[in-house]
């Protein structure tokens, strides 16, 4: 199938079903379908839909876990508190910054990796594939620790290795300022998630018909022209799917921030803010409001992508 | 084939889930009642005490330990979450004193039996008694008491011409460090340790973060907009900006401080007594030269204003008994065993955590092991707890947000912090 | 391809390998440093030591680390098995049957996959406290399903759609019973897809951090990523860099083994259905 044919949502089954005349059979098949798929569907709803509705409900109350006696209904007051708080907007800005920077870099870098993998010699391919998969499969917390220890003043080697660069000396405290802290966080995120993007792009590259490439080559198009006119338009769907998933994933960044800076020096992200209010401060009401706002932001981003860029979700897949 | 096996595995898992049910998987053993003691991480001393007390109880109870996270704020989170759930497995808790009011106020602590309380405060340092008390009621049992000392290199102090037999001030230290081209190590990281430092400064200047505590968050009176608070901010800013702190000062905690003291970068340091235990094990492990340790000196915490005794930080651990514990009486019995002078002494020697009971400091074995024991005892008598309020985590979090980084502290920081604490306590701002 | 071009691609390939392995090599190197080496500012240890490993496997930190490792394995395997089981039926229905609601199920899976975990952890924590699931295995297995189930459904549906199901009928025509036909024909065709899905689902569960730190508080159910934050040095105020590095290496070993053995499958699973019909 080509990339434009939605694979999953159509009713095309691999085995062409015989024409059904009896509505009984149709009904039986429907019932069987729901019987088989129903449990999975129900579990998914139970573990996510119920808690989010509970969070919306909780966010309408002023409620502190250590002070259950003082629980009171405040309507949308918590949302007002959050949205008029500079801290929320700062966290939102930091999250947006991390998202934009990491996704942009990952797209370019991932594309380069995908090209190398496509052209790599047969003998190298398995090694490359295994190497690329490692960052994807490693625990985010482990990756965060590795990058933190590398840049840390006491345990790191970065300062002594890169002391020849202007602005880096043995005494550069990477986690001492906002800018450099965010730089290290972004580096760790990029290292960990570029492989996933590059794999999706590699699959997209493989979809580009060779015939078109050859035709363009015959016409005397340069490599750049071929990229721009043939390769990229033909894998647009793959690019968009990769972008959508990484953007949503990046917007939820939490582990790296938690491990590396614990939110110091203005590196709080929205996820971290929600965690701090609910789990650390036990302010269930306020924290639920932050959680709901985070949820809405993710929904809006997804919606914007799907409507704005016409991402064909039929080709997307549940994937982190 | 594989699929079938997988399916069987899945069925087994479902069965296991069903069997475990909601109570989790546990086997009840008909032995003596098990008391679970939630401990802060140490190098094994509390586990040893638990074993010793279990043996001494002759089958009356069996103490098991469960370790909490490293950061005291996270210890609090874990405990509060379970206590709010009415967890009956929490019998004994090692509590960081600042969070005790919150626990007491929320009704998470079982009341201390009068005679147990009377025995528990007998011969104990005043700061440790204050830290175990809320609303004039003893709510926990003092176990060990911590305080920060001023650590210095004798050679550096001598070269700078400081008389360390007399109390020194922060200003003198800054001048000496500048003259000797050495660093002062303190904890500038955005963590509880920053509040420890700031509170010691404001109390040494004769001020208080909270001047009047109250049950309702709105009624709490703050002393952050006072001349004493300004003085504390000025000292903090002076230390952070006089070129006498290390490059990673704004991310340095206790560990980074002691590392710079050991490698010679810092000639002065404020830190807890674990420094000594670490130095000794460093010499044993061959990572630290004996000559470096021989140069260690110690004194009571620096003063803010000459002639006004300093208010060293008070820390340590008190034992609380969970309100939902099934065996509160046994748990209090166990605390008496745990906090016996003998065990406090053993713990002091094994883990370097100073006793709450003053008699322990006069023990020759302790003094042989910790030559600074008399200074610690004096420091404990002078020490002042951090602000006592049921909303401590909010107060501490706000102070951390405003006073970090210490390099940016200005005269406006105090009023800003006061405004933030008020807003956070009345639920008008996030933290 | 000219020789020059070929050399260029090989260099680029080596660059990728370095890029991927460098941070892993660093954490491995760090885990072999002794306490005095940790702050030497170098990449490699001057003295090679196993002390960090003995600390977490037999020493002071073992009481924290070993139960956590067991919890991680148990919880992740059960969550993976459950989600594969549920997804198997759902994917079969999606691939093979014609019923309204396919689209809803796949869209729901997608929506759940992009869900911010942090948004639902608080209500779950509250509910778990009330019904006694807090700090238990089931209390983590259930939320892990929200991580593993959506991807299992997508990946498995993509695999199942490629199975030539008509072979089953052909076998039955040849005289095999329904069960034989299913076992001899379909199972071998479906097994690789199920297996690949299981690996990817396992990765996701293994990687969890937020649920781990929010829904547990003791060794009863605490998984490794959450336990890493609890290590301490010789005292509460000392940083356990070496111990964390060693623990990080230990939890990475299963992941590396899976990747080395099943890389081709994992890549197929990750990209299957994303851009292929």
* Gross morphology of chain A: globular
Measured as a percent range, the helix fraction of chain A is 55-70%
| Radius of gyration of chain B, taken over Cα atoms and rounded to an integer in Å | 23 Å
Main beta-sheet strand count, sense and barrel state of chain A: 2 strands, antiparallel
- Number of distinct beta strands of chain A: 2
Oligomerization: heterotrimer
State the total count of DSSP E strands of chain B.
Answer: 13
Number of discrete helical segments of chain B: 19
Strand content of chain A is under 5%
Question: Averaging pLDDT over every residue of chain B, what do you get?
Answer: 88
Question: What is the first-to-last residue Cα distance of chain B?
Answer: 55 Å
Summarize the largest interface: chains and residue counts: A-C, 116 and 116 residues
Portion of residues within helices of chain B: 40-55%
Descriptive overview:
The complex is a heterotrimer of chains A (320), B (431) and C (277). With 320 residues, chain A is an all-alpha fold. Helices cover 67% and strands 1% of the residues of chain A. Chain A has 13 helices and 2 strands. In chain A, helix 1 (23-58) crosses helix 13. Chain A is globular and about 75 Å long. Mean pLDDT of chain A is 83; it is low at 1-17 and 315-320. Residues 1-29 of chain B have low confidence and may be disordered. In chain B, helix 7 (154-160) crosses helix 8 (170-180) and helix 9 crosses helix 10. By secondary structure, chain B is of the alpha/beta class. In chain B, helix 2 (45-56) links the parallel strand 1 and strand 2 (62-67). Chain B has helices at 2-20, 45-56, 72-84, 100-105, 114-120, 126-131, 154-160, 170-180, 192-204, 227-241, 254-262, 274-285, 290-294, 328-338, 341-351, 364-369, 373-382, 392-403, 413-425, and strands spanning 34-39, 62-67, 92-95, 133-134, 137-138, 141-147, 149-153, 183-185, 210-212, 221-222, 266-271, 296-299, 314-321. Chain C has helices at 3-31, 51-57, 62-96, 102-113, 117-131, 137-160, 166-173, 178-206, 210-214, 224-228, 241-271. The longest helix of chain C is centred in the first third of the chain and has 35 residues, at 62-96. Chains in contact: A-B, A-C, B-C. The interface between A and C is large, with 116 and 116 residues. Chain C: InterPro entries: BP-dep_ABC_trans_perm, MetI-like. Chain C: The chain crosses the membrane at residues 7-28, 64-92, 104-128, 140-160, 185-206, 242-262. Chain C: Keywords: Cell membrane, Membrane, Transmembrane, Transmembrane helix, Transport. Chain C: Belongs to the binding-protein-dependent transport system permease family.
């Amino acid at each position: 199938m080509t990339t434009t044919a939605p694979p999953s949502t159509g009713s095309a089954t691999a085995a062409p079903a015989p024409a059904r005349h009896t509505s009984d059979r149709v009904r039986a098949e429907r019932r069987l379908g729901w019987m088989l798929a129903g449990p999975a569907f129900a579990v998914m709803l139970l573990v996510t839909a119920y808690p989010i509705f509970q969070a919306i409900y909780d966010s309408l109350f002023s409620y502190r876990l250590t002070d259950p006696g003082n629980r009171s209904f405040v309507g949308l007051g918590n949302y007002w508190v959050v949205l008029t708080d500079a801290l929320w907007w700062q966290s939102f800005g930091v999250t947006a910054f991390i998202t934009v920077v990491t996704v942009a870099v990952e797209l370019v870098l991932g594309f380069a990796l995908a090209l190398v993998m496509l052209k790599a010699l047969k003998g190298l391919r398995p090694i490359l594939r295994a190497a690329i998969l490692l960052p994807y499969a490693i625990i985010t917390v482990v990756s965060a620790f590795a990058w933190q220890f590398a840049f840390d003043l006491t345990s790191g080697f970065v300062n002594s290795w890169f002391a020849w660069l202007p602005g880096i000396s043995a005494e550069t405290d990477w986690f001492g300022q906002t800018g450099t802290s965010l730089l290290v966080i972004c580096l760790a995120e990029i290292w960990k998630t570029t492989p996933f993007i590059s794999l999706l792009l590699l699959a997209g590259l493989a979809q580009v018909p060779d015939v078109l490439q050859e035709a363009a080559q015959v016409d005397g198009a340069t490599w750049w022209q071929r990229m721009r006119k043939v390769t990229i338009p033909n894998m647009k769907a793959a690019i968009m799917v990769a972008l959508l998933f990484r953007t949503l994933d990046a917007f939820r960044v939490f582990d790296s921030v938690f491990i590396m800076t614990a939110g110091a020096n203005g590196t709080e992200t929205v996820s971290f803010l929600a965690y701090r209010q609910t789990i650390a401060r036990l302010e269930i009401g306020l924290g639920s409001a932050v959680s709901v706002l985070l949820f809405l932001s993710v929904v809006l981003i997804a919606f914007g992508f799907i409507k704005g860029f016409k991402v064909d979700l039929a080709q997307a897949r549940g994937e982190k | 084939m594989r699929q079938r096996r997988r399916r069987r595995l899945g069925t087994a898992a479902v069965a296991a889930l069903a069997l475990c049910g909601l109570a989790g998987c546990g086997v009840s053993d008909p032995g003596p009642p098990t008391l679970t003691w939630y401990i802060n991480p140490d190098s094994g001393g509390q586990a040893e005490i638990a074993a010793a007390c279990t043996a001494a109880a002759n089958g009356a109870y069996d103490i098991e330990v469960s370790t909490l996270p490293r950061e005291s704020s996270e210890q609090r989170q874990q405990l509060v979450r379970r206590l709010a759930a009415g967890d009956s497995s929490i019998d004994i808790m090692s509590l960081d004193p600042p969070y005790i009011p919150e626990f007491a106020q929320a009704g998470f602590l079982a009341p201390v039996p009068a005679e147990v309380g009377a025995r528990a405060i007998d011969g104990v340092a005043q700061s440790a008694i204050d830290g175990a008390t809320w609303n004039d009621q003893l709510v926990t049992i003092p176990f060990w008491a911590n305080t920060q000392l001023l650590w210095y290199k004798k050679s550096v102090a001598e070269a700078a011409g400081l008389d360390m037999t007399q109390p020194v001030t922060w200003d003198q230290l800054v001048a000496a460090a500048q003259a000797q081209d050495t660093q002062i190590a303190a904890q500038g990281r955005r963590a509880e340790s920053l509040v420890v430092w700031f509170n010691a400064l404001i109390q040494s200047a004769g001020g208080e973060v909270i001047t009047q505590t109250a049950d309702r968050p709105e009624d709490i009176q703050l002393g952050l907009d006072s001349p004493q608070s300004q003085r504390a901010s000025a000292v903090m800013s002076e230390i952070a900006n006089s070129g006498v702190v290390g490059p990673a000062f704004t991310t340095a905690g206790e560990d980074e401080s002691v590392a710079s003291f050991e490698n010679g970068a810092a000639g002065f340091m404020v830190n807890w007594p674990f420094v000594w235990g670490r130095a000794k094990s460093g010499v044993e492990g061959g990572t630290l030269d004996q000559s470096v340790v021989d140069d260690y000196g110690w004194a009571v915490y620096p003063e803010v204003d000459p002639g006004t005794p300093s208010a060293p930080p008070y820390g340590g651990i008190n034992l609380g008994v969970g309100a939902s514990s099934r065996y509160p009486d046994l748990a209090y019995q166990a605390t008496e065993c745990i906090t016996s002078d003998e065990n406090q002494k053993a713990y002091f020697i094994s883990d370097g955590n100073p006793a709450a009971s003053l008699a322990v400091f006069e023990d020759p074995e302790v003094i042989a092991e910790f030559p600074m024991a008399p200074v610690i005892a004096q420091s404990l008598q002078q020490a002042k707890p951090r602000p006592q309020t049921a909303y401590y985590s909010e107060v501490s979090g706000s102070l951390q947000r405003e006073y970090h980084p210490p390099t940016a502290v200005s005269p406006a920081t105090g009023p800003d912090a006061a405004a933030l604490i008020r807003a956070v306590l009345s639920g008008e701002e996030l933290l | 391809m000219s020789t020059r071009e070929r050399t260029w691609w090989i260099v680029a390939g080596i660059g990728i390998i370095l890029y991927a392995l460098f941070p892993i090599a660093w954490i491995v190197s760090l885990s072999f440093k002794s306490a005095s080496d940790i702050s030497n500012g170098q990449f490699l240890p001057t003295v090679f030591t196993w002390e960090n490993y003995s600390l977490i496997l037999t020493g002071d930190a073992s009481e924290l680390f070993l139960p956590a490792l067991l919890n991680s394995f148990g919880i992740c395997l059960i969550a993976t098995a459950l989600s594969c089981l549920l997804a198997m039926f759902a994917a079969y229905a999606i691939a093979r049957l014609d019923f309204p609601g396919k689209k809803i199920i796949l869209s729901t899976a997608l929506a759940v996959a992009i869900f911010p975990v942090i948004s639902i952890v608080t209500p779950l924590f509250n509910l778990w406290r009330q019904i006694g699931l807090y700090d238990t295995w089931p209390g983590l297995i259930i939320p892990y399903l929200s991580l593993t189930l959506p991807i299992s459904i997508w990946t498995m549906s993509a695999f199942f759609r490629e199975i030539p199901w008509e072979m089953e009928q052909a076998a039955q025509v040849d005289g095999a019973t329904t069960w034989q036909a299913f076992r001899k024909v379909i199972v071998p065709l479906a097994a690789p897809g199920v297996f690949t899905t299981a690996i990817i689902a396992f990765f996701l569960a293994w990687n969890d951090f937020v649920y781990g730190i929010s829904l547990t508080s003791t060794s009863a159910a605490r998984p490794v990523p959450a336990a890493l934050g609890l290590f301490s040095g010789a005292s509460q105020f000392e940083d356990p860099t070496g111990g964390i590095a060693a623990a990080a290496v230990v939890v990475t070993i299963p992941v590396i083994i899976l990747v080395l053995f099943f890389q081709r499958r994992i890549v197929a699973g990750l990209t299957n259905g994303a851009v292929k019909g």
